[in-house]
Design goal:
Blueprint: E1 2-3, E2 8-9, E3 23-25, E4 31-35, H1 40-50, H2 65-70, E5 87-93, E6 99-103, H3 104-115, E7 124-131, E8 138-147, H4 155-164, E9 167-172, H5 182-186, H6 190-193, E10 210-218, H7 227-253, H8 258-269, E11 275-279, H9 280-284, E12 295-303, H10 309-327, E13 336-342, E14 365-373, H11 384-392
Antiparallel strand pairs: 1-2, 3-4, 4-7, 5-6, 5-7, 8-10, 8-11, 9-10, 9-13, 12-14, 13-14
Helix pairs in contact: 10-11
Length: 396
Amino acid sequence: MLYADENQLLINPEHLGPDEEKVVLNADKTEVTIMANVTMVEVKKRQLKDEFTILSNVIIDSVTYGGTVNTGCHGVGRGCPALPDLVVKLEVVNDKGDLVTYSRADDGEEFMNAVTTNLGLFGFVYKMTLAVKQNKITVETHNEYHSVKDTLTNSSKLKHLAESNWSTEIFWFPYNSILHNIKELLKIKKEDFLKLPTPNLDKWDPLQDDCWLRLTNDKSGGKTEKCLFHFRHKFNDALGELGLKAITPLLDAAPNLNPYFCCLNSHVVKLQPSKICVQLPDAIHFRKFVHWAPVHDMEFAFVVDHDYSNIVEACKVVIDEIERRARQGNFPMNVCMEMRFMGESKSLLCPAVVGQHSPNKEVKTAYIEVLSLVRRQSRLARLHSSNCHWMEQDWR
């Protein structure tokens, strides 16, 4: 596809290359070469089969490596870099049609930091080679639920969570405290569902909403979940995404249902096991089929202050705006706000790049994203004030 106004090409690499060359692990299992059109789930299967590990990655398993590396996507895990920082070699077809290879060994760290997150400016990325761990890593994930007051607006609690766990991910589904039991919602008859009034939010306090915490840590030698668990997980994700796709037009036609929907989401999340033991690729890529129900996603990266006070401030911007809009009967965020912690990036166009700092200082980065289902108009556009506030604070 050619964009006539900008003279840019959008290339679909879906049928790129023979299958046997899509994922190639070197002999000593220190590097893996991946074609740009390969998805996270394809590489995850190879990691589980051949017992190697890509230490930092995105949580969605349906996106491609070309799309995530080129755009500087974040990773997850305390002290872990972003995905492009793991790239040791990049093969690119330039504007002349030549296949050019760039590598850290031949071109140096500084050049590779510029080229890994390239947004297509160097040409079409054909293959990339990533550094990997030579062994499988078993982890244990705990699912916990704590109030917004005790997590997103509590800097000491955030600091403890982020620094005492290998991976800390926090999700807030707004309005979830207006119904204390999912059974209250399930009792509503189908014919009465569209007639539901906008819930009375006069007494709603967002600080009393629950947050879902995914806390992941090393569990060497742990007994991993069996096939039945993974089948159930896959089935539940498929069912959930089909439900999201089906309900999107309903929420657009009846905005008053959005708080009930968020409530339902929050309570359904609590049905999952409180503790699971899996290999790291399964723990990282825990969301499946998300491409079935597209969402608007506004995401910013923040360098974490020593006391985490700036992260609390960033969260309050969204919480206050959601509360203000709710009082007006407006519900721009109908999925969730999500936050994760990682290290820094050296890739120059990655949002997690920090720049000059003390080499002895461990830099922590927090990613905060606001998600809403896609329909006729962008609900996230209504959160413009949050966007502007973050930009004014020189956050990325």
